[in-house]
Design a protein that fits this description.
Elements: H1 2-10, H2 12-46, E1 57-58, H3 67-72, E2 77-78, H4 80-116, H5 126-139
Antiparallel strand pairs: 1-2
Helix pairs in contact: 2-4
């Protein structure tokens, strides 16, 4: 059983997947920061200063200045602004992954085309050409 596990781990796909997950987690942190620190303020400017992360529906009936205040008070809230931010993050990640996959597929196709293209035959050495001409002349 231990040998089977070692064999499973040693496969390239498992290692590739692990690397992808680690890079994906790091990339998610970058995208999260880009959305919250760069994109959301710009979107807020165009929407009249709306901060999506502070949009919520208060289900407890109390009045609170912000989502943080409502959560600190223990109020039940529907945090649809945070959901909007998550959707924006998802769309950005999905677009970047799409662009990466598209670039990788283009490189793969180019490599396959280069492999499939017939290589031009090398010109025979001059002495072989000369001997071939002599042979052809002798046949006549």
């Amino acid at each position: 059983m231990l040998n089977e596990f070692k064999e499973f781990i040693a496969r390239g796909n498992v290692v590739d997947m692990a690397v992808g997950i680690i890079i994906g987690a790091a990339f998610t942190a970058i995208v999260t920061s880009a959305v919250s620190d760069i994109l959301t303020p710009f979107i807020g400017v165009f929407t009249g200063g709306i901060d999506f992360s502070n949009l919520y529906i208060n289900l407890s009936g109390g009045e609170y200045e912000s989502l943080a205040a409502a959560q600190e008070a223990g109020a039940a809230t529907v945090n649809y602004g945070l959901f909007i931010n998550a959707v924006i993050r998802f769309l950005i990640v999905a677009f970047v992954v799409f662009m990466l996959v598209k670039a990788v597929n283009r490189m793969k196709r180019k490599a396959e085309e280069e492999e499939a293209a017939p290589a031009e035959p090398e010109a025979p050495p001059a002495d072989v050409v000369l001997l071939t001409e002599i042979r052809d002349l002798l046949k006549k």
